[in-house]
Design a protein that fits this description.
The complex is a heterodimer of chains A (206) and B (187). By secondary structure, chain A is an alpha/beta fold. Helices cover 38% and strands 13% of the residues of chain A. Classes of the chains: A alpha/beta (206), B alpha/beta (187). At the A-B interface, helix 1, strand 4, helix 7 and strand 5 of A face helix 1, strand 1 and helix 4 of B.
């Protein structure tokens, strides 16, 4: 008698449960997703134990990179265009629709005003590669930052202000930004920081 | 791996009725799982994971006329000069123009050292001024121009950690401060 050949059974796993889990997670991530924005500069913020969250909308963000260059951005595209219109009005510049469209896509920018038109007319890839020189905040000569802040608030008065500084940026850069804000009577703002665990045993008073 | 099992074996064939073979309704889920995880991976990588937190900072109004208040006694003030290389020059309860200021100035580093220093100073000053119910201790933070933004945030954070209610961020350096700090100011 020939030996009984065992029936070859491929091991099979039921994938339904795994599939359920995968799509559950997927749904979760899609719903909570907030995409990284393309910023003009990479900024590593210091961390603090503050439990407050940065507001989601109506946010004006002033960034200071590690060389002390200053970038400015607001989160809403419509406000961006309104801000650009205000800025053009104040400075006697007119922007074409194409330029406005390009400007609406900038999550933040750090350019002197006179370079802005040229920058907006660059094709997309070149814009990304362009090294932005930072916004001038000299209190005596040219203070573009103060102008932008003014015109942004004119476009949307409810903007909240966040300052995002790099670990390595020097204090004078921050002082300049502070000066531009204080000169316009803005005395309340947020510093964007990473989150860090408070020391053991620490409890908040609130 | 993805074989679909058919039917229930050959046991039934003996009976008279020939049953039509039932087609299996099981679908192989493997590609779907693959797709699911691929998308998950994409979303994980494309999202900002931890939302940054915000530190509220209120600065005094520059344009308002200053209400005249009595100057705070130097003995109630801990002054922190944030200097180069993450060093804090701390002046505890001494005015910068005091003769002893130079010898009493201590260099501390950020973290536990600074925290211990603030706590010790607060305990001492509050104990020395029991008439002030809310605590007499005032901390003044003066970042020098060679300090970094991180130093400032750390120092402000330290105020939250030590629950110091009265503190001020001052960027103005008086002549007495400059004399005291000397070359620490510029190097």
């Amino acid at each position: 008698m020939p030996a009984v050949k065992p029936k070859r059974n491929f091991p099979m796993m039921d994938m339904t449960a795994m599939c359920d889990v995968a799509f559950l997670l997927l749904t979760f991530f899609i719903l909570t997703a907030k995409f990284k924005s393309q910023d003009a500069a990479e900024i590593e913020t210091p961390s603090s134990i503050s439990g407050l969250k940065v507001p989601d909308k109506d946010l004006m963000q002033i960034s200071i990179d590690k060389d002390g260059k200053i970038y400015f951005g607001i989160d809403n595209m419509n406000t961006r265009i309104a801000m650009l219109d205000n800025m053009g009005e104040a400075k006697g510049l007119t922007f074409t629709d194409k330029e406005k469209k390009a400007f609406a896509l900038q999550s933040n920018f750090g350019l002197p005003l006179e370079q802005l038109k040229g920058f907006l007319n660059l094709p997309g890839e070149q814009q990304k590669a362009f090294k932005q020189p930072g916004m001038p905040v000299d209190s005596t000569a040219q203070n573009d930052l103060a102008l932008w802040i003014y015109n942004a608030r004119k476009a949307n008065n409810g903007l909240r202000i966040a300052i995002k500084g790099d670990n390595l940026s020097k204090f004078p850069a921050f002082k300049d930004v502070l000066g531009a804000l204080q000169a316009q009577n803005i005395n309340k703002f947020n510093l964007v920081t990473g989150t860090e665990a408070p020391p053991a045993g620490w409890t908040s008073d609130k | 791996m993805s074989e679909i099992q058919q039917g229930g074996g050959g046991g039934h064939k003996k009976g008279g009725k020939v049953r039509s073979k039932k087609a299996s309704t099981r679908v192989d889920m493997t590609p779907m799982v693959d797709l699911g995880f691929l998308l998950i991976t994409f979303f994980i990588l494309a999202t900002t994971l931890s939302k940054p937190s915000a530190m509220q900072l209120n600065v005094p109004d520059k344009q308002k006329d200053e209400v005249k208040t009595d100057p705070i006694k130097a003995s109630k003030v801990l002054t922190l000069y944030l200097g180069k290389n993450n060093v804090v020059h701390a002046l505890d309860g001494v005015a910068p123009d005091d003769e002893e200021a130079k010898t009493k100035m201590k260099d501390v580093s950020f973290g536990p050292d600074l925290r211990a220093m603030i706590t010790a100073s607060r305990t001492r000053i509050n104990a020395a001024n029991p008439e002030d119910k809310e605590g007499a201790f005032v901390c003044v933070i003066k970042p020098l121009k060679n300090s970094t933004y991180k130093n400032m945030v750390d120092a402000l954070d330290e105020m939250t950690i030590t629950k110091t209610k009265r503190y001020a961020l001052v960027d103005l350096l008086l002549q007495t401060d400059k004399d005291l700090l000397g070359d620490k100011l510029n190097d």
